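Lab notebook, design round three. We kept the backbone fixed and only want residue identities now. Task for the bench partner: fill in a sequence for the structure below.
Input structure tokens:
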């Protein structure tokens, strides 16, 4: 699902409905199952910097979609992947 939203991200890892997004050098995304994990990850990124060009552009996003939109995205993904 998140792959549809950030299909232009430089990289993405993990799985879940919470995402830490870093926009310092391109867009990088990590997914987490719980908001606690996502907040902890963002705190670590804030403390350590995400890379050489870090400008502290980090955020936590909760992925939430209306079921109709989710179905549509699933259909599109399924069609393209087949
Ligand atoms: Zn950064």
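Proposed sequence:
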């Amino acid at each position: 699902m998140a792959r549809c939203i950030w299909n232009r991200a430089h990289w993405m890892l993990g799985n879940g409905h919470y995402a830490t997004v870093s926009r310092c050098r391109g867009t990088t995304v990590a997914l987490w199952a719980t908001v606690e994990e996502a907040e902890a990850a963002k705190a670590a990124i804030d403390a350590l910097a995400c890379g050489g060009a870090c400008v502290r552009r980090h955020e936590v996003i909760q992925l939430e979609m209306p079921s109709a939109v989710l179905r549509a995205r699933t259909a599109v993904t399924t069609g393209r992947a087949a």
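Keep this in mind before ordering anything: The chain has a mean pLDDT of 79.
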